[in-house]
Design brief:
alpha/beta; six-stranded mixed sheet; 5 helices; 6 strands; 49% helix; globular
């Protein structure tokens, strides 16, 4: 099920299960996962996109192996906050995936997540070739960590 509200998403998450963060691109899907305490996001892998069914099957394998309890999708708003074609594509992916999975799905504003990931990789003196290999799943970890921090703050209030 897709949740527009983070509060509803948080309630739907099973206890002691990890969350997956996805950065959906046109050619790749960056995947990051949290720990079971939902405190730290870790970049996992970049899935090369082909057909939806193959992409979804690979994600299902990852989610099953990692015992994922929920999915957060980076929603690529325009800088002015409006939704463009990439947001529509992400929402369509979520609708299709929700038809085949019972995992709760929510969105996170991903503006500047790739920029932050690129900056971190540059500061770590990562080669251009290596950056291109890991940028998507590092960006997914920024998306997921943002959500994890928000969930932590929601639990404190």
């Amino acid at each position: 099920m897709i949740y527009e509200s983070l509060e509803d998403f948080a309630v739907a998450l099973p206890a002691q299960r990890a969350i997956a963060g996805l950065d959906l691109g046109t050619k790749t899907i960056g995947v990051a996962v949290s720990d079971r305490l939902m405190s730290v996001a870790t970049p996992l892998e970049t899935v090369r996109r082909s057909k939806y069914t193959a992409d979804a099957a690979r994600l299902e394998q990852i989610f099953k192996a990692r015992e994922i309890g929920g999915i957060i999708l980076g929603l690529p708003f325009n800088m002015d906050g409006s939704e463009g074609p990439r947001c529509q594509s992400t929402r369509a992916f979520a609708r299709n995936f929700a038809r085949q999975s019972d995992l709760p799905i929510a969105y996170w504003d991903e503006r500047l997540s790739t920029v932050a990931a690129e900056r971190a990789l540059l500061e770590a003196d990562t080669s251009r070739k290596r950056r291109s290999e890991v940028i998507d799943h590092v960006a997914a970890s920024y998306i997921l960590q943002g959500l994890l921090d928000r969930l932590h703050n929601m639990r404190k209030t």
